[in-house]
Amino acid sequence: VVPARIEVIRHVRIKYGCPDCEEGVQIAPAPVKLLPKSNASPTLLAYVATAKYQDALPLYRQSQIFARHGIEIPRNTLARWMVQVGERLMPLVEALRQHLLQAPLIHMDETTLQVNAEADRPASSTSYMWLQRGGPPGQQVVLFDYDASRAGRVPVRLLGNYAGRLVTDGYEGYAEVVRKNGITHAGCWAHARRKFVEAQKVQPKGKTGKADWALNQIRKLYAVETQAKALGPEARQALRDQKSRPLITQLRTWLDKSLTQVLPKSALG
């Protein structure tokens, strides 16, 4: 293992002048900096960003690590660098978004996030990180977008004019963009399965109920997906048509029948 090492790179720009020329003093142009008026190199900024956002290493710990190497970089300086790097990367983010919106199918979900210092909002307020994943086959893009709201206007903003297929957990906040854009709205099997798991937990011990039958059907669907992982798009579609479609038809028939047999407020309702 080679220990990490921090180097100081000095750019020496020598001035030259020719007494017999009319061009005066000449000096080489300075290297282009990612952050103007900053002594942070692109490699240092990439290291801090990767450690913070990929490896979940807080900035105060990074500051301590740098100090052990004899380099004093205050936490507020690291934070300012990350904000500036984020601003410089926005053109890349927008390019990734356009790439994402070319996908025939996008997965989307939102999760809570607490922001400690936000203008005009208490630190205890609940905000949201919106996740989008999609892109052409073999070129998947994952984007995270922050918004203080969970309202339907957020997916409307994020998806623009996208009119493909959208997979969500069924949250009603996506209804507006689905209706507005003519999107084909698909459900997430993991979220559907979770409801049957919850219903299974309240069944009498040792008894087999409706939730068990549904979970068994979903288990078979998951098994098909395991087989499909190694296949190309056309072969995967053929396998799903052959094995998954009949299972889903059976499940839908069972659900329609069960609607008349369970109480609305029960675990299966």
CATH class of the largest domain: Alpha Beta
**CATH fold-level assignment of the largest domain:** Nucleotidyltransferase, domain 5
**Unreliable sequence segments:** none
The total beta strand count reads 7
The separation of the N and C termini measures 58 Å
How many separate domains make up the residues? 3
- Number of helical segments? 9
The class by helix and strand makeup works out as alpha/beta
Work out the helicity level: 40-55%
Compute the average pLDDT. Answer: 92
Strand percentage lies at 5-15%
The radius of gyration computed from the alpha-carbon positions, rounded to a whole number of angstroms, is 27 Å
| Strand neighbour order, sheet with most strands | 5-4-3-6-7
- What general outline do the C-alpha atoms trace? elongated
Q: Give me the CATH superfamily of the largest domain.
A: Ribonuclease H-like superfamily/Ribonuclease H
Main beta sheet strand tally, sense and closure: 5 strands, mixed
Overall CATH architecture of the largest domain: 2-Layer Sandwich
The SSE order reads EEHHHHEEEHEHEHHH
Overview of the structural elements:
- This protein folds into 3 domains: 35-88; 102-187, Ribonuclease H-like superfamily/Ribonuclease H (Nucleotidyltransferase, domain 5); 189-258.
- It is elongated and about 100 Å long.
- Helix 7 (189-201) runs antiparallel to helix 8 and helix 8 runs antiparallel to helix 9 (233-258).
- The protein is of the alpha/beta class and 269 residues long.
- Helices cover 45% and strands 15% of the residues.
- The strands form 2 sheets. It has a 5-stranded mixed sheet. Strands 1-2 form a two-stranded antiparallel ribbon.
